[in-house]
Amino acid sequence: MFNIFWWIRQAFLIFVACFFLTFGILMLISAYKLENPYSFIMAFFASNLMILISATLVLGFVLRMVKTYRLSKNNED
User: How many domains in the chain?
Assistant: First the structure.
């Protein structure tokens, strides 16, 4: 149903979203080392937003790939 380039693109998008998820986690860890309360609050909420969006994108791309794989398996039968 979908060609190999679609699968490669989805895998690349998952990789990019995982990169930003990891970056958000590292940013959250580094936020706890800040001394200024204002800087802590800004870094904390920014990292949480980055983690939330990245995790949602990873989940969406994975679910899209699973759905497509199941549809292609049903079409072959």
Answer: 1
